[in-house]
Amino acid sequence: MRIRGSMSSGQDTSFVRLVSLACHDLRTPLATVHGFARTIARTGELEEPESRYLEMIEAASGQLAELLDELSLAARIESGRYEPTTTEVDLGELVRAAAARLDEELVRVEGEGELVRVDAPTTERALAALVRCALRHGGLDQVDVLVDGREVRVSPITPSSAPVVLGEDMRDLGAAVAVRLVRALGGSVELDGDVLRVALPA
User: Fold this and answer.
1) Is 84 helix (H, G, I), strand (E, B) or coil?
2) Distance CA 77, CA 83 (A)
3) Which residues 6+ apart lie within 8 Å of 115 measured at CB?
4) Which residue in 76, 66, 84 sits closest to 123, CA to CA?
5) In a 3-state reduction of DSSP, which class is residue 196?
6) Across the 202 residues of the chain, what is the mean pLDDT of every consecutive 10-residue run?
7) What is the pTM of this model?
8) DSSP for residue 189
């Protein structure tokens, strides 16, 4: 199933195709950097501070790979070429896996979920990105995440973070892509007071 993006048929899609191509071509040299950094780190022959620098290179290359995945996903959605592989997953399990990507002291998850049909890996990443954005741009020490059936509620969303979390103020790539992904899958992302409500399709 192909997901139609937000571009109309009359719009020029050459730029998003260029972004997709760049993401594809950048993966090979980035994988080389990450792979060799990991190989050297496993030898255990380096001393400080060299070993610490190598760990930083490995971590940074992993972060770059995730950013390329986000850009590639956004380009596919915008150009109408997003073809997700959807499966039925328990939303509660998906949210807890997303929260595990963050510091456990920063996120409190409660509630029970129902089965939803989504692209599980990208949706897990998207939910983590929305929570991370609420923390980062809201200047918060902790956020609450409530799972209720097919809906996820994240709070509090501050006035300063609201437009960023909704992807309207483009200052957070992860959140901007997350909103587009949820909507492309047939879900919704809305703000209700200081609560972000993310609904996913059954």
Assistant:
1) coil
2) 9
3) 88, 89, 90, 91, 202
4) 84
5) strand
6) 45 70 84 87 83 88 87 88 93 97 93 96 96 96 97 97 94 93 96 97 90
7) 0.81
8) E
